[in-house]
## 1
Amino acid sequence: MRLINLSSLLFILLCSSGELSAAGLVTSIEKDHAGNWRVHYSADTAMTRLVFQRSPDQSRQTRWKPESAAFEIVSLDGHEAVRRTDGKAFTAVGFRLTPTYVVLPKEYAPFSPFTDGGMLVHSGRFFACPEQCNDSQNQWQIRLQAGKNEHIIVDGKVHRAEASWTDQDSGKSIYVGSSKPVTDDNFVSVIDTGLPNALQQLMAQRLPDILAFFSTKMGKLSFRPSLYASYSPNADGGYGHQGGSLPGQVFMHWYGKQAVEQLNERATLLFFAHEVAHLYQRKAANVEQLQDAWLHEGSAELFSALAYTAISADQALLPKKLKIVQQACLDALAQDPRYSSQAQTNPNVHYSCGMVLFHAIHQDLTAQGHDVFTQWLAFNAAVEQGKPATPATFLAVVRPALSADFSKQLSEFIQNPQFDAKAFFQRLGTLLPPTGAAGS
């Protein structure tokens, strides 16, 4: 019997005392000694199809190779799905994977390689359900097995060779490799030694300062976050970077030689500060609706700029950035001044318009003797107590601290879908600090 099947059996036995998952499905991911990756799905009842919960494109159809010719991956109802070519039911299926970096639309890459052979794996890429996924499906039982001398980091905890966990929401970034993680007061981190020394030093020196800034403003985290920074060459000449944050994690991947040769120190620090800000936003960052993403993205943009200003003493950054994002916001609203309409098709407005709006909130709060970070903590407290992470909850929390005039404008922006957002953001532009000023 192959190792992957033994692993699946062991995992089923380990989990037999409780519910395997909402769908009765076990996902086993394996990396063998030669660096090959496989995934195996095993269900407790027969199914006619296995549907993937996240399908930003159809790339599984070319990057996942069925271990048996009896199976295929097809597109069904907007999702990628596995089925037998003869239409019969099945209880298990396995695939050989392509463990290289690939950019997915509005989704994290499934594999982010490190130059020493390590890998960052996005678990959400492997979420699947028998027959179909539904809104109540939000638990996935996953087991990962690697080489006996390799580390596996899950939720900041370091395992050796194998790990099992219950996953949910958007998934996790899982590190698999032989590099020894660095554990200190700030992070559990793995920094690719293939990255330029200047970047490695920048992160080692500045990221603790960013955490210290947010800890002072928003309280220390109750956990030690994980930080991953990786790099892989790109044979086709393309280059770029992608990063983000998941609960308790911040990660960044550069691909292609030019991506690291053209590295911008300020942009890199701002990116990390933005993602770290999401960690400190805590549960209030879990905004429910896409059109409301300005709430957590706009605030993170402002918070990151304020953090960068504090640790670098670069007083010109904030006003320069505000000028750029305000113009980007107005350009986005030029064709349709309704923010709710633009927010559905242009995710960039959450960052540009959102930062301008949060700067205006910050200015108004400061004028009333309040603080934007303190108000965010009050918003998070409301969410922790069961209120939804919505603009309505934020407004209810912050309204008493705002001036009457600005409170009225903010209420209109939040509550009226026909509100003329372009005119609103043009007015907010008059409140921006002049270029060269500190901007508070």
Note: Residues 110 and 302 are 29 Å apart (CA to CA).
## 2
Amino acid sequence: MFTLDDLITQRPPLHRHGDGRKASWGASETVLKFIMDHAGPHSKTIETGAGHSTIAFALSGAEHYAVFPEPYLADTVGDFLDDNGIARDKLHLLNGPSQDILPALKEDGFDLVFIDGDHAFPVPFMDWYYLGRRMKPGGLLIIDDTQIWTGHVLKTFLMMEPEWRLIKDCYGASFFRMEEPWSGKWWGKQAYTVIHSSFKPGDENLFTPHIREMLLPVYESDK
């Protein structure tokens, strides 16, 4: 029986370089183990991107959706699962850019979301926007490649939002729990947005006490 340890050891080359050469890009061992520890036969999960993480989700037995733009991944991932006797009856491979597929996605109620697709601006933020609202309260969110600017900004933004709690952090990946149901927010209630904006004295009265307190160091540094 194929196991997560086999996946970590083998690191199969499921991806391709631009010139067609095989590549073994994939989520870290920490991410793969987190997926196996927190997803199971009763879970509903989704990721942007596909590869080693898709194999881990399949091994977990979760009802899983993978959204990816590279057409060949449907074959390389699917063939690897078949060749190793890993069930794929609960796996849904959705080929196309996440920014095109996610807005029209009918599924919701996700227990675990993994953002590891296109890292170019603004795609990770769009992935979070469309998938966060489809998560269950208490669900888990993994942001991969936080060493890249886009992932780092998304991570930092969520660390300042009370609806999200950072539960684990390592180089290249951050893990959050969704503490409250999704709700749209006026920008003035988003702490990260406010403290990275420019204001004149007196403007702080526009904001909640919590954000006004966070703004104090900003105003002090301007004096």
Note: The radius of gyration is 19 Å.
